[in-house]
Amino acid sequence: MIYLLLGEDDFSKQSFLKSLIKPGVDVQTRDAANLPSAEELSGSDLFGGRKLWILRQCIDALDREAWLAKVASSQHDIVLVEESLDRRKTTSKQWLSDKRISLKEFGVPEGSELSKWTTEHAKSLDIAWSPDLTQYLLARLGYDQDNRFGEGTKPDLWQLHNELLKIKTYCGGEKPDHSAIDLLVPENRDAHVFAVLDALASGRKQEVINLLSDYFSSHDSTDEKAKAIQLTAALAEQFRSILLVLAAGAERMPDQTLLSQTGWKSGRLFIVRRNASRFNQSKVTDVLQKLAYLDVELKSTARQRASFSI
Q1: Residue 305: pLDDT band by 50, 70, 90 thresholds?
Q2: What is 193-214 written as a DSSP string?
Q3: CATH number of the domain that residue 97 is part of
Q4: CA-to-CA distance for 155 and 201, rounded, in angstroms?
Q5: Residues 86-101: pLDDT tens digits?
Protein backbone atom coordinates (compact mmCIF):
# COMPACT_ATOMS: atom_id res chain seq x y z
CA MET A 1 0.00 0.00 0.00
CA ILE A 2 1.21 3.50 -0.83
CA TYR A 3 0.14 6.34 1.46
CA LEU A 4 0.50 10.10 1.15
CA LEU A 5 0.33 11.96 4.47
CA LEU A 6 -0.30 15.71 4.32
CA GLY A 7 -0.76 18.42 6.94
CA GLU A 8 0.91 20.19 9.84
CA ASP A 9 -0.33 17.81 12.54
CA ASP A 10 2.87 15.86 13.12
CA PHE A 11 1.49 14.18 16.25
CA SER A 12 -1.36 12.48 14.40
CA LYS A 13 0.97 11.59 11.53
CA GLN A 14 3.26 9.81 13.98
CA SER A 15 0.30 8.01 15.53
CA PHE A 16 -0.76 6.80 12.09
CA LEU A 17 2.76 5.60 11.28
CA LYS A 18 2.89 3.68 14.57
CA SER A 19 -0.33 1.91 13.60
CA LEU A 20 1.44 0.55 10.51
CA ILE A 21 4.31 -0.97 12.47
CA LYS A 22 3.56 -4.65 12.98
CA PRO A 23 5.75 -7.33 14.61
CA GLY A 24 8.59 -8.29 12.31
CA VAL A 25 8.24 -5.23 10.07
CA ASP A 26 11.53 -3.48 9.24
CA VAL A 27 11.09 0.31 9.37
CA GLN A 28 13.22 2.38 6.99
CA THR A 29 13.08 6.20 7.02
CA ARG A 30 14.65 8.20 4.18
CA ASP A 31 14.64 11.74 2.80
CA ALA A 32 15.23 13.10 -0.71
CA ALA A 33 19.01 13.04 -0.22
CA ASN A 34 18.91 9.29 0.51
CA LEU A 35 16.02 8.24 -1.68
CA PRO A 36 15.89 4.45 -2.24
CA SER A 37 15.51 3.16 -5.78
CA ALA A 38 12.17 1.90 -7.03
CA GLU A 39 13.69 -1.58 -7.19
CA GLU A 40 14.66 -1.39 -3.54
CA LEU A 41 11.16 -0.24 -2.59
CA SER A 42 9.44 -3.05 -4.46
CA GLY A 43 11.90 -5.91 -4.08
CA SER A 44 12.19 -8.61 -1.42
CA ASP A 45 15.22 -9.10 0.77
CA LEU A 46 16.98 -12.43 1.40
CA PHE A 47 14.56 -13.40 4.18
CA GLY A 48 11.38 -12.16 2.48
CA GLY A 49 10.42 -9.83 5.34
CA ARG A 50 8.06 -6.91 5.00
CA LYS A 51 9.20 -3.32 5.30
CA LEU A 52 7.66 0.02 6.14
CA TRP A 53 9.27 2.69 3.99
CA ILE A 54 8.81 6.25 5.31
CA LEU A 55 9.87 8.82 2.70
CA ARG A 56 9.92 12.39 4.02
CA GLN A 57 9.72 15.39 1.67
CA CYS A 58 10.54 13.25 -1.37
CA ILE A 59 7.74 13.98 -3.84
CA ASP A 60 9.62 16.72 -5.68
CA ALA A 61 12.39 14.22 -6.40
CA LEU A 62 10.05 11.64 -7.97
CA ASP A 63 8.70 11.15 -11.48
CA ARG A 64 5.19 10.19 -10.37
CA GLU A 65 4.06 7.99 -13.25
CA ALA A 66 7.35 6.15 -13.79
CA TRP A 67 7.85 5.69 -10.05
CA LEU A 68 4.32 4.42 -9.33
CA ALA A 69 4.49 2.01 -12.26
CA LYS A 70 7.39 0.28 -10.53
CA VAL A 71 6.31 0.41 -6.87
CA ALA A 72 2.50 0.21 -6.95
CA SER A 73 2.54 -3.59 -6.61
CA SER A 74 5.15 -3.66 -3.84
CA GLN A 75 4.48 -5.98 -0.92
CA HIS A 76 5.81 -3.29 1.40
CA ASP A 77 4.00 -0.26 2.84
CA ILE A 78 5.39 2.97 1.37
CA VAL A 79 4.48 6.24 3.08
CA LEU A 80 5.17 9.62 1.52
CA VAL A 81 5.18 12.28 4.26
CA GLU A 82 4.77 15.92 3.23
CA GLU A 83 3.75 19.01 5.18
CA SER A 84 1.94 20.49 2.19
CA LEU A 85 1.64 20.47 -1.59
CA ASP A 86 0.91 23.45 -3.80
CA ARG A 87 -2.55 22.42 -4.97
CA ARG A 88 -2.40 24.93 -7.83
CA LYS A 89 0.29 22.91 -9.58
CA THR A 90 -0.66 20.23 -12.09
CA THR A 91 1.86 17.79 -10.60
CA SER A 92 0.34 18.21 -7.14
CA LYS A 93 -3.17 17.62 -8.48
CA GLN A 94 -1.93 14.43 -10.14
CA TRP A 95 -0.42 13.12 -6.89
CA LEU A 96 -3.58 13.95 -4.95
CA SER A 97 -5.96 12.32 -7.42
CA ASP A 98 -3.98 9.16 -8.23
CA LYS A 99 -6.07 6.17 -7.17
CA ARG A 100 -2.96 4.09 -6.48
CA ILE A 101 -2.27 6.29 -3.48
CA SER A 102 -4.22 6.43 -0.21
CA LEU A 103 -4.37 10.11 0.80
CA LYS A 104 -4.45 10.96 4.52
CA GLU A 105 -4.74 14.62 5.59
CA PHE A 106 -3.81 15.74 9.09
CA GLY A 107 -4.79 19.33 9.82
CA VAL A 108 -4.10 20.73 13.28
CA PRO A 109 -7.44 20.91 15.15
CA GLU A 110 -8.52 24.30 16.47
CA GLY A 111 -11.50 25.72 18.37
CA SER A 112 -14.16 23.13 19.19
CA GLU A 113 -12.24 20.42 17.32
CA LEU A 114 -9.22 21.01 19.54
CA SER A 115 -11.41 20.77 22.65
CA LYS A 116 -12.86 17.49 21.40
CA TRP A 117 -9.40 16.12 20.58
CA THR A 118 -7.99 17.05 24.00
CA THR A 119 -10.87 15.46 25.93
CA GLU A 120 -10.73 12.26 23.87
CA HIS A 121 -6.94 12.05 24.09
CA ALA A 122 -6.97 12.52 27.87
CA LYS A 123 -9.45 9.68 28.20
CA SER A 124 -7.34 7.49 25.88
CA LEU A 125 -4.49 8.00 28.37
CA ASP A 126 -6.79 6.71 31.16
CA ILE A 127 -7.02 10.08 32.89
CA ALA A 128 -10.20 10.83 34.84
CA TRP A 129 -11.03 13.83 32.67
CA SER A 130 -13.95 16.10 31.83
CA PRO A 131 -14.65 18.86 29.27
CA ASP A 132 -14.32 21.62 31.89
CA LEU A 133 -10.74 20.52 32.57
CA THR A 134 -10.08 20.67 28.83
CA GLN A 135 -11.20 24.29 28.68
CA TYR A 136 -9.10 25.21 31.71
CA LEU A 137 -5.99 23.51 30.30
CA LEU A 138 -6.44 25.13 26.88
CA ALA A 139 -6.87 28.55 28.49
CA ARG A 140 -3.69 27.97 30.51
CA LEU A 141 -1.80 27.24 27.30
CA GLY A 142 -3.43 30.05 25.33
CA TYR A 143 -5.39 27.75 23.03
CA ASP A 144 -8.86 28.57 24.32
CA GLN A 145 -9.83 30.93 21.49
CA ASP A 146 -9.43 30.72 17.72
CA ASN A 147 -6.40 32.73 16.59
CA ARG A 148 -5.59 33.58 20.23
CA PHE A 149 -1.90 33.59 19.40
CA GLY A 150 -2.50 35.90 16.48
CA GLU A 151 0.66 35.23 14.54
CA GLY A 152 -0.34 32.10 12.71
CA THR A 153 0.72 29.79 15.54
CA LYS A 154 -1.05 26.43 15.53
CA PRO A 155 -1.81 24.44 18.68
CA ASP A 156 0.99 22.02 19.51
CA LEU A 157 -0.51 18.55 20.06
CA TRP A 158 2.85 17.20 21.27
CA GLN A 159 2.79 19.85 24.01
CA LEU A 160 -0.78 18.94 24.96
CA HIS A 161 0.14 15.25 25.02
CA ASN A 162 3.14 15.88 27.28
CA GLU A 163 1.15 18.12 29.64
CA LEU A 164 -1.52 15.44 29.96
CA LEU A 165 1.14 12.83 30.75
CA LYS A 166 2.51 15.08 33.52
CA ILE A 167 -0.98 15.51 34.94
CA LYS A 168 -1.59 11.75 34.81
CA THR A 169 1.67 10.98 36.64
CA TYR A 170 0.99 13.59 39.31
CA CYS A 171 -2.65 12.68 39.97
CA GLY A 172 -2.39 8.92 39.58
CA GLY A 173 -5.91 7.53 39.39
CA GLU A 174 -7.47 10.62 40.94
CA LYS A 175 -9.34 13.19 38.92
CA PRO A 176 -7.20 16.33 38.35
CA ASP A 177 -8.43 19.73 39.48
CA HIS A 178 -7.56 23.29 38.49
CA SER A 179 -4.88 23.59 41.17
CA ALA A 180 -3.03 20.56 39.75
CA ILE A 181 -3.07 22.12 36.27
CA ASP A 182 -1.82 25.43 37.72
CA LEU A 183 1.01 23.61 39.47
CA LEU A 184 2.14 21.53 36.49
CA VAL A 185 1.37 23.61 33.39
CA PRO A 186 3.18 26.94 32.89
CA GLU A 187 0.85 29.72 31.79
CA ASN A 188 1.46 31.04 28.30
CA ARG A 189 1.49 34.80 28.79
CA ASP A 190 2.13 35.48 25.10
CA ALA A 191 -1.53 34.69 24.49
CA HIS A 192 -2.51 37.63 26.71
CA VAL A 193 -0.09 39.90 24.88
CA PHE A 194 -1.56 39.11 21.46
CA ALA A 195 -5.09 39.59 22.80
CA VAL A 196 -4.15 42.95 24.35
CA LEU A 197 -2.53 44.12 21.12
CA ASP A 198 -5.55 43.09 19.06
CA ALA A 199 -7.89 44.94 21.42
CA LEU A 200 -5.64 48.02 21.35
CA ALA A 201 -5.51 48.02 17.57
CA SER A 202 -9.30 47.75 17.38
CA GLY A 203 -9.87 50.51 19.95
CA ARG A 204 -11.70 48.20 22.38
CA LYS A 205 -10.63 50.03 25.55
CA GLN A 206 -12.80 48.12 28.00
CA GLU A 207 -11.50 44.81 26.66
CA VAL A 208 -7.93 46.05 27.12
CA ILE A 209 -8.72 46.88 30.75
CA ASN A 210 -10.30 43.47 31.32
CA LEU A 211 -7.38 41.63 29.70
CA LEU A 212 -4.82 43.55 31.75
CA SER A 213 -6.80 42.88 34.91
CA ASP A 214 -6.84 39.15 34.13
CA TYR A 215 -3.12 39.22 33.36
CA PHE A 216 -2.12 40.83 36.65
CA SER A 217 -4.53 38.81 38.77
CA SER A 218 -3.33 35.42 37.49
CA HIS A 219 -2.44 33.13 40.37
CA ASP A 220 1.27 32.39 40.21
CA SER A 221 4.44 33.28 42.07
CA THR A 222 5.45 36.17 39.79
CA ASP A 223 5.06 39.60 41.40
CA GLU A 224 3.28 42.44 39.63
CA LYS A 225 6.46 44.35 38.78
CA ALA A 226 7.99 41.31 37.05
CA LYS A 227 4.73 40.78 35.18
CA ALA A 228 4.75 44.42 34.08
CA ILE A 229 8.34 44.10 32.81
CA GLN A 230 7.46 40.94 30.87
CA LEU A 231 4.33 42.53 29.39
CA THR A 232 6.23 45.68 28.38
CA ALA A 233 8.91 43.66 26.61
CA ALA A 234 6.38 41.49 24.78
CA LEU A 235 4.30 44.47 23.64
CA ALA A 236 7.46 46.25 22.44
CA GLU A 237 8.38 43.20 20.36
CA GLN A 238 4.95 43.21 18.71
CA PHE A 239 5.03 46.94 17.99
CA ARG A 240 8.50 46.57 16.46
CA SER A 241 7.02 43.97 14.10
CA ILE A 242 4.26 46.41 13.18
CA LEU A 243 6.80 49.17 12.55
CA LEU A 244 8.80 46.82 10.33
CA VAL A 245 5.72 45.96 8.25
CA LEU A 246 4.77 49.63 7.90
CA ALA A 247 8.30 50.50 6.76
CA ALA A 248 8.32 47.60 4.30
CA GLY A 249 4.99 48.77 2.92
CA ALA A 250 6.31 52.31 2.46
CA GLU A 251 9.24 50.90 0.47
CA ARG A 252 6.92 48.56 -1.49
CA MET A 253 8.98 45.57 -0.43
CA PRO A 254 7.62 42.27 -1.87
CA ASP A 255 6.12 39.88 0.65
CA GLN A 256 8.58 37.12 -0.23
CA THR A 257 11.51 39.43 0.47
CA LEU A 258 10.07 40.42 3.84
CA LEU A 259 9.35 36.79 4.77
CA SER A 260 12.86 35.79 3.75
CA GLN A 261 14.53 38.56 5.74
CA THR A 262 12.44 38.08 8.90
CA GLY A 263 12.01 34.29 8.87
CA TRP A 264 8.28 34.77 9.42
CA LYS A 265 5.58 32.52 8.05
CA SER A 266 2.84 33.98 5.86
CA GLY A 267 0.28 33.60 8.66
CA ARG A 268 2.29 35.84 10.94
CA LEU A 269 2.74 38.47 8.23
CA PHE A 270 -1.02 38.47 7.60
CA ILE A 271 -1.85 39.14 11.24
CA VAL A 272 0.88 41.74 11.80
CA ARG A 273 -0.21 43.53 8.63
CA ARG A 274 -3.82 43.49 9.80
CA ASN A 275 -2.84 45.17 13.06
CA ALA A 276 -0.44 47.52 11.25
CA SER A 277 -3.31 48.81 9.11
CA ARG A 278 -4.71 50.45 12.25
CA PHE A 279 -1.57 52.43 13.06
CA ASN A 280 0.84 54.82 11.37
CA GLN A 281 4.63 54.90 11.74
CA SER A 282 4.58 58.04 13.88
CA LYS A 283 2.11 56.52 16.35
CA VAL A 284 4.02 53.22 16.59
CA THR A 285 7.33 55.03 17.11
CA ASP A 286 5.72 57.06 19.91
CA VAL A 287 4.38 53.90 21.56
CA LEU A 288 7.80 52.23 21.37
CA GLN A 289 9.45 55.25 23.00
CA LYS A 290 6.92 55.17 25.83
CA LEU A 291 7.39 51.43 26.32
CA ALA A 292 11.18 51.91 26.42
CA TYR A 293 10.79 54.61 29.05
CA LEU A 294 8.41 52.42 31.07
CA ASP A 295 10.84 49.49 30.87
CA VAL A 296 13.69 51.64 32.23
CA GLU A 297 11.51 52.97 35.04
CA LEU A 298 10.29 49.53 36.05
CA LYS A 299 13.77 48.02 36.05
CA SER A 300 15.31 51.02 37.84
CA THR A 301 12.72 50.79 40.60
CA ALA A 302 13.30 47.06 40.86
CA ARG A 303 17.06 47.58 41.20
CA GLN A 304 16.58 50.30 43.81
CA ARG A 305 14.41 48.03 45.91
CA ALA A 306 16.87 45.18 45.53
CA SER A 307 19.75 47.43 46.66
CA PHE A 308 17.73 48.65 49.62
CA SER A 309 16.93 45.09 50.65
CA ILE A 310 20.61 44.13 50.53
Answers
A1: very low
A2: HHHHHHHHHHT-HHHHHHHHHH
A3: 3.40.50.300
A4: 24
A5: 999 999 999 999 999 9
Instruction: Give yes or no for a contact between 105 and 6, defined as CB atoms under 8 angstroms apart.
Output: yes
Residue 27 — very low, low, confident or very high, per pLDDT cuts 50/70/90?
A: very high
Q: Which residues pair with 3 in a beta bridge?
A: 79, 102
- Looking at the 3D structure of the chain, how many domains does it have? 3
Q: Which helix (H) or strand (E) holds 90?
A: helix 90-97
Q: What are the two backbone dihedrals, phi and then psi, of residue 179, each rounded to the nearest 5 degrees?
A: -65, -35
Provide CB contacts within 8 A for 28, sequence distance 6+: 36, 51, 52, 53, 54
Both 226 and 295 in one domain: the answer is: yes
d(CA 175, CA 167): 10
Residue 16 CA, chain-centre distance (Å), reads: 19
Helix (H) or strand (E) holding 30: strand 26-31
Structural domain including 165 reads: 112-184
